[in-house]
Write a structure and sequence with these properties.
- The protein has about 220 residues and is α/β, with parallel strands linked by helices.
- The chain is about 35% helix and about 20% strand.
- The chain contains eight helices and ten strands.
- The N and C termini lie close together (about 5 Å).
- Pathway: Amino-acid biosynthesis; L-tryptophan biosynthesis; L-tryptophan from chorismate: step 3/5.
Length: about 220
């Protein structure tokens, strides 16, 4: 069976971390300071949550830093085992980060605005462990670096998945109603979600269970 991994983002406290793990999440997303979007918490809070997460659950630090040394320092402050770079940074910084953090999993976010994202994927792939496709607008007056709740063009995402030498996560507007279509059309390695499993900003166990069941139903034999 093909099993699509699930990352639950915007984890705000240890109770939400426990809820996500109990529901079967493969990874937790911990959002540091951002120019916009939901779920940011302090580096101290991230470090406290990370310290209690059992293996094999991955802990993703979402950082908007754009220089390798600043990203590396951010990871060291929080203790996360994976860093998710949410900005389109210079590929040379990605290369430097691989040298600074050789034992940390590195994930580069690609915001799918048009087909030029395919060139970005080629530039980053040699230096990261995975790519994550989202629906932000990094060039907006107030940069959107994730958490938009918008679906982007999955045809572009599917093309990128076929071309990518790295595993690819899909984010942006995923719900129990559309996740089956997303899995069939894009065939991502994993999914990343935040708002659709929350009620009034808090992780909702019922919505989380519904989403996870929809993913299980959508997974099919290879």
């Amino acid at each position: 069976m093909k099993r699509t991994r699930v990352k639950i983002c915007c984890i705000g406290n240890p109770a939400e971390a426990e809820m996500a793990i109990a529901a079967g999440a493969d990874a937790l997303g911990l959002v540091a300071a951002m120019p916009s979007g939901p779920g940011p918490i302090s580096d101290e809070a991230i470090a406290r949550i990370v310290a209690d997460v059992p293996p094999p659950t991955a802990t993703f630090l979402l950082t908007c830093e754009i220089e390798a040394h600043a990203i590396a320092d951010h990871v060291r402050r929080t203790g996360a085992n994976t860093v998710q770079v949410v900005n389109h940074i210079d590929a040379r910084e990605s290369e430097r980060l691989a040298v600074l953090l050789p034992t940390i999993r590195r994930v580069q976010v690609l915001h799918v605005e048009d087909h030029t994202v395919l060139d970005l994927a080629d530039a980053y792939s040699p230096f990261v462990h995975a790519l994550l496709l989202d629906s932000g607008r990094p060039s907006a007056a107030v940069p959107e670096l994730g958490g938009t709740g918008r679906v982007h063009d999955w045809a572009i995402s599917a093309d990128l998945v076929r071309r990518s030498p790295r595993p690819v996560f899909l984010a942006g507007g995923l719900t129990p109603d559309n996740v089956g279509t997303a899995i069939r059309e894009v065939q991502p390695f994993g999914l990343d979600l935040c708002s659709s499993v929350r009620t009034r900003g808090h992780l909702d166990s019922g919505k989380l269970a519904t989403f996870m069941e929809a993913v299980r139903r959508a997974d099919v034999p290879l």
